[in-house]
Write a structure and sequence with these properties.
This protein has 149 residues and is α+β, with helices and mostly antiparallel strands. 22% of the residues lie in helices and 28% in strands.
């Protein structure tokens, strides 16, 4: 019997939604950093401190350890590490509820990949294909097992 894993609240966000939100923010507006380092999912609620429309950037108050405080409005990627595993997502009611249920700095704020199904591709980089971490890892492992047999 397989159980349905809890879905990450940003799984349904699209690149257009991320761009539309972050191109129109002003200082003081909420921002959410999504971090998927080490097969874990964590969101950090922060706020916009500044924008630079000419460069297409937004700046947040509480930066991420891997992503920093400067982000591209077009896709939510970090200006310092654009290929990293930290990115901005839209602070929807679902994302904000998740943060409330898993407050940063508290036990349970980081949710491991085997406990939740999250799309490993950040919303600002999605092309419509769903890439979930665990099924891909399972397929790779099964492929190796079949190859080794």
């Amino acid at each position: 019997m397989t159980t349905q894993k809890k879905q990450a609240p940003c799984n349904s966000q699209t690149a257009k939604q991320v761009e539309d939100y972050y191109r129109n923010v002003k200082p003081g507006d909420p921002a959410v950093i999504r971090c998927t380092q080490h097969y874990a999912l964590q969101y950090t609620l922060t706020e916009i401190t500044d924008t630079n429309p000419k460069k297409g950037r937004v700046y947040v108050k509480d930066g991420d350890a891997w992503g920093g405080a400067a982000w591209y409005a077009k896709n939510g990627k970090s200006c310092y590490h654009p290929t990293g595993q930290s990115n901005l997502v839209v602070p929807t009611p679902e994302v904000l509820k998740w943060i409330e249920e898993h407050p940063p700095g508290k036990l349970g704020s980081i949710v491991l990949a085997h406990d939740v199904d999250y799309d490993i591709t950040p919303p600002g980089q999605r092309d419509g294909r769903r890439l979930s971490l665990m099924p891909r890892a399972r397929d790779v492992l099964l492929g190796r097992k079949q190859h080794d047999s």
